[in-house]
């Protein structure tokens, strides 16, 4: 394949090792950034529905991990239901990779149990309210495989919050 092994883009490609093994997937800058938890264009990850059928096991592992990260979206759950991995590849996909470091909007390292403050009004999808700027979120949890997300309670609801919208207290 000449393009990105996830989305097919024909831009400069980077060999991306898939931990904990050293096998690589050739990814474009957008997909590589998305793996690090950075934002990607809307609909970008829908390319996983094709990538998950790759002959490259490293791409299958990435597809499995990303689809699990996107489980809240119906299409990702449907794709995961169809995805079959050989037992050895599935064990690799479930293996814990390198430590994920969560940082707030100013770059401070976040830990489980920290208290943070929202720096922007955030509309909470599915809950019907807006979490206001300045709201304190106490005792956060870290999303294990995504450095760009934390979990916390706001107005009694457990929600996922992007780390770019919080500041450590």
List keywords for this structure.
single chain; 169 residues; alpha+beta; SH3 type barrels; 2 domains; three-stranded antiparallel β-sheet; 5 helices; elongated
Description:
There is one protein chain. The chain has 169 residues and is an alpha+beta fold. The chain folds into two domains: 13-94, no CATH class; 116-168, SH3 type barrels (Roll), CATH 2.30.30. Helices cover 24% and strands 22% of the residues. The chain has helices at 29-35, 48-51, 57-69, 74-82, 87-94; strands spanning 13-17, 24-28, 116-118, 122-124, 129-131, 136-137, 141-142, 149-154, 157-162, 166-168. The strands form four sheets. The protein has a three-stranded antiparallel β-sheet with strand order 6-3-10, with no helix packed on it. It has a three-stranded antiparallel β-sheet with strand order 7-8-9, with no helix packed on it. The chain has a two-stranded antiparallel sheet with strand order 1-2. A hairpin with a 6-residue loop joins strand 1 and strand 2 (24-28). Helix 3 crosses helix 5 (87-94).
């Amino acid at each position: 394949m000449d393009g990105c092994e996830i989305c097919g883009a024909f831009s400069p490609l980077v060999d991306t090792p898939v931990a904990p093994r050293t096998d690589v997937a050739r990814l474009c800058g957008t997909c590589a950034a998305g793996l690090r938890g950075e934002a990607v264009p809307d609909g970008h990850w829908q390319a996983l529905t094709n990538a998950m059928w790759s002959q490259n096991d490293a791409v299958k592992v990435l597809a499995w991990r990303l689809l699990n990260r996107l489980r809240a979206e119906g299409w990702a759950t449907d794709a995961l239901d169809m995805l079959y991995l050989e037992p050895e590849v599935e064990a690799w996909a479930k293996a814990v990779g390198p430590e994920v470091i969560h940082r707030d909007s100013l770059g401070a390292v976040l830990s489980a149990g920290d208290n943070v403050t929202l720096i922007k009004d955030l509309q909470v999808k599915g809950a019907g309210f807006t979490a206001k700027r300045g709201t304190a979120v106490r005792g956060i949890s870290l999303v294990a495989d995504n450095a760009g997300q934390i979990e916390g309670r706001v107005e009694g609801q457990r929600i996922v919050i992007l780390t770019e919208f919080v500041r450590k207290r």
